[in-house]
Design brief:
Shape: elongated
Keywords: Signal
Low-confidence stretches: none
Strand content: 35-45%
Number of helices: 2
Protein name: DUF2911 family protein
Radius of gyration: 23 Å
Oligomer: single chain
Distance between the termini: 79 Å
Strand order of the largest sheet: 1-2-3-6-7-8
InterPro entries: DUF2911
Length: 180
């Protein structure tokens, strides 16, 4: 009887060993520019959401912002896929009326001002297939200097009384886009 228990235990152990290897997955490490999201308002109650942006957060790692987001060229506003912004209700983006929906978010960095662009093309990689003909709205905002340096590109929202600002920052550069 002991012999059959030993054989059964050994057989079960071998089955578990091989089945574990069959179902093992290779998971990649943390992305070099991890995906993040920012929303307004930032409460956890989904029904309160008015705006959400999903973007990847490139990091400086000793490089200049101007090499990662060149001045005068359309930039994907982050890394990897173009950032996407969703408005859950009609909004004014700068001085342009924008219908509720999801848009890609591009920027054209400049020394003193950045142009922030909503484009109807979504699910696009980078700015390689950017098509200006599909722009929905553009707003040009001044660049200001922050006190602290941000290693990773960041987007946050703040607002009150129906007025919202989407803040973008990287290194000491800051811009604020008015949304209402």
């Amino acid at each position: 009887m002991k012999k059959s228990t030993l054989i059964s235990t050994l057989a079960f152990s071998l089955i578990m060993l091989f089945s574990t290897n069959i179902f093992a997955q290779d998971f990649s490490g943390l992305d070099k520019s991890p995906m993040d999201a920012a929303s307004y308002p930032s409460s956890y109650k989904v029904s309160d959401k008015q705006i959400k942006v999903v973007y990847s957060r490139p990091q400086l790692k000793g490089r200049d912002v101007s090499t990662l987001a060149p001045q005068g060229k359309v930039w994907r506003t982050g890394a990897n896929e173009a950032a996407e912004i969703t408005f859950y209700q009609d909004k004014m983006f700068g001085d342009k009326q924008v219908k509720a929906g999801t848009y890609s978010l591009f920027t054209i960095p400049g020394e003193k001002e950045w142009t922030v662009i909503l484009n109807s093309d979504v699910n696009v990689w980078g700015a390689y297939s950017y098509n200006e003909a599909n722009d929905v709205a553009r707003v040009t905002v001044p660049v200001t200097e922050g006190k602290d340096s941000l290693e990773a590109f960041s987007i946050v929202f703040d607002g009150k009384d129906g007025r919202t600002q989407m803040h973008m920052g990287w290194d000491t550069l800051r811009i604020a886009v008015p949304i209402k």
